[in-house]
Task: inverse folding
């Protein structure tokens, strides 16, 4: 039996969500947007996916209202992609997947440090976390559900600071990975050392 191309016959909110974010690479594009990646070439460099795939994923996310395309340069015309409120609402999903990926996978297939991210910062197999997420207001590492254990509140993405974990490559090959070695707040535009 052939696998369908969509979930049209499913009466399920998860299936409807997968129509938008369920294709390979899509959640990694959204993850990078949370990290502050906004420019097409920076997504391309960091993710290492084919141009046609990236263009299709960005177009799908823009049509779905997850990303907004904004012109940052007029001559020559250049655009950046910024998370909308609808996109920011995906933070708990990404946070949960990150925690699950840290605790329930063995890291098999991870080749370049861009994949599996630190969940609570403690991998089940003792692996070093790649990234640590803290509440910027108090510095406490976020709990499994994105809450601050010290303050007792859910922390919105704009109030999350991302720190490099001990599992990250300290000398990455590209400008995006180098920029992501610096502590930073989520959603803030990423400044790379463009040549």
Result:
């Amino acid at each position: 039996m052939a696998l369908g191309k969509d979930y049209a016959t499913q009466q399920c909110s998860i299936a409807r969500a997968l129509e938008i974010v369920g294709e390979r690479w899509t959640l990694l594009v959204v993850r990078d947007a949370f990290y502050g990646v906004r420019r097409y070439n920076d997504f391309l460099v960091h993710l290492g996916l084919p141009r046609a795939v990236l263009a299709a994923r960005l177009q799908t996310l823009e049509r779905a209202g997850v990303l907004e395309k904004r012109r940052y340069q007029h001559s020559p015309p250049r655009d950046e992609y910024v998370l909308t409120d609808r996109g920011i609402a995906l933070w708990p999903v990404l946070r949960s997947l990150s925690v699950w990926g840290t605790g329930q996978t063995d890291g098999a297939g991870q080749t370049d440090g861009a994949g599996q991210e630190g969940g609570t910062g403690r991998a089940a197999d003792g692996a070093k976390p790649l990234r640590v997420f803290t509440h910027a207001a108090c510095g406490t590492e976020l709990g499994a559900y994105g809450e601050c254990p010290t303050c007792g509140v859910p922390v919105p993405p704009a109030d999350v600071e991302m720190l490099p974990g001990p599992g990250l490559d300290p000398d990455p090959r590209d400008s995006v990975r180098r920029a992501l070695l610096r502590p930073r707040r989520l959603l803030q535009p990423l400044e790379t050392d463009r040549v």
About this structure: The beta strands are 67-74, 77-83, 131-135, 147-148, 153-154, 160-164, 184-185. The radius of gyration is 17 Å.
